[in-house]
Amino acid sequence: MHFEHLIEINDPNNPMLTPLSVAQLWRGLIHRAESPGEFLDNLDDATITLREEGFMERQLRFGSLLVHDRIWFEPQRRVRYETTPSEQHGGGSLTMTIEQPEPGRLFLRFVYHTPLSEQNGGNEETQFIPYIKAAYRDADVHTVRVIREMAERGDLGM
């Protein structure tokens, strides 16, 4: 399954949105990788198992489900998560890309790839795809909300 969507971070026509800088958004995305418990309500434990320049590996525990992922960082531009397939989890990837098409405009693009097939119209698996996409979108909106709250508290600098 491929799923992609865009969240507008800064909209100069919406005075209700406090603008974020690229640096603030970037620091928020790094924080999401390093402290996922602040972004995932049902996460029981997260352990960083390897950290190198521009890369880290983690183990996440959700009850009895263990998820291992690798995360690559392109500073101020992109974060890419790759989840290792296991007996408990099918694996997949998420890429979050910061886009600034013009001054004052800032977006965050989310691109998911999973082993779920969207081709077999009537099977049980494909019936859940709209719900999975909605859950991804909701989680991403929540991520942006948490980053905004962090920025408002001054946790992300300027």
UniProtKB/TrEMBL annotation:
InterPro entries: AtaL (IPR015075), START-like_dom_sf (IPR023393)
Membrane-spanning segments: none
Entry superkingdom: Bacteria
Residues spanning the signal sequence: none
Pfam families in UniProt: AtaL
Protein name: SRPBCC family protein
Lineage: Bacteria, Pseudomonadati, Pseudomonadota, Betaproteobacteria, Neisseriales
